[in-house]
Specification:
The protein is of the alpha+beta class. The chain has four helices and ten strands, in the order αββββαββαββαββ. Among the domains are: about 80 residues, Antifreeze-like/N-acetylneuraminic acid synthase C-terminal domain (Type Iii Antifreeze Protein Isoform Hplc 12, Alpha-Beta Complex), CATH 3.90.1210; about 120 residues, no CATH class. About 20% of the residues lie in helices and about 25% in strands. The strands form three sheets. Strands 3, 4, 5, 6, 7 and 8 form a six-stranded antiparallel sheet that branches.
């Protein structure tokens, strides 16, 4: 048999084998994807659940999840009944264990307080409370404004100063209800509960009695704390500094050289030397 023909046949056989393997794998992947994945029933919310709400059997239902189930999903309703809700849960949403308060801690605001933190109430008004847009889960900075004791003793008049005492503080609740109103809009509140450390709670307790507190809303993604210097009332009305004057020259002043109004020409004739003086152009002789 011709060697060239044998080579062509072998190459065709190799190509056919590779194509067969590729088709086999593609068909196998399609068949595996078409197989129904096992479904698991998990506990879900039967209605919208608010922060601090104590769960009962009527608040729970079950839903099926195809494929992989979250590790913290609750499979038995008895593991959720009697526990407080720490984060809002919507109807039909699976309930995760880390979104509920520990067993035995109950419901209400206390169940949402993290370990090592405290909740403290701060009285605000519509303007101070960022026009009512301070809602649970947001982060704020706390500003205090008052006349410092040193200025009061000195009798220097109204020298009110503003300082940022706390930064990136989480809001636990706003008003008597720790949710938004029926239309989903933020409520106009008089009291805001903040999540703080014990040291920060002391600062806020002292500031509540002696100063006026204002909350400054910040972007939830902006968690960086910056150094902010205080501002006084006198700084707002301080006159602008005058523009710097031109620098003055120092040292002895030299008199300008006098201009020459004429020029001299020396004429040498043998042993005789004479000087002739002529007027410069534009000058006087």
């Amino acid at each position: 048999m011709n060697r060239r023909l044998v080579t062509i046949l072998l190459a065709a056989f190799v190509v056919a084998a590779l194509c067969s393997v590729l088709v086999y794998r593609l068909v196998g992947m399609r068949i595996a994807a078409a197989k129904p994945q096992p479904a698991t029933r998990v506990v879900a919310a039967a209605a919208d659940l608010k922060i601090g709400q104590l769960l009962s059997a009527a608040d729970l239902t079950t839903v099926q999840i195809q494929g992989t189930v979250p590790k913290t999903a609750i499979l038995d309703a008895k593991n959720a009944i009697g526990r407080g809700v720490m984060q809002p849960i919507f109807a039909g949403e699976p309930i995760l264990d880390n979104r509920l308060a520990p067993v035995g801690s109950g419901g209400g605001l206390a169940a949402t307080i993290k370990d090592g933190y405290r909740a403290i109430a701060v009285r605000v008004d519509q303007v101070v409370g960022v026009a009512g847009f301070v809602t649970p889960g947001m982060h704020v900075d706390v500003l205090v404004s008052a006349v410092p004791p040193s200025a009061q003793n000195a009798g220097s008049g109204n020298n009110t100063q503003v300082r940022t005492v706390l930064q990136n503080i989480e809001v636990l609740s706003a008003g008597t209800d720790i949710q938004k109103d029926a239309e989903g809009k933020p409520q106009q509140v008089q009291v805001v509960n903040l999540l703080v450390t014990p040291e920060q709670a002391q600062v806020l307790a002292l500031a509540s009695n002696e100063t006026r507190i204002q909350l400054v809303l910040r972007n939830p993604l902006d968690t960086k704390e910056v150094k902010v210097s205080g501002t006084g009332m006198t700084n707002l009305f301080a006159e602008q500094a005058a523009p710097p004057s031109k620098p003055k020259l120092t040292g002895p002043v030299r008199a300008p050289k006098p201009k020459n109004d004429s020029f001299t020409v020396t004429v040498i004739n043998g042993s005789t030397k004479t000087d002739e003086k002529f007027a410069a152009p534009g000058g006087k002789q």
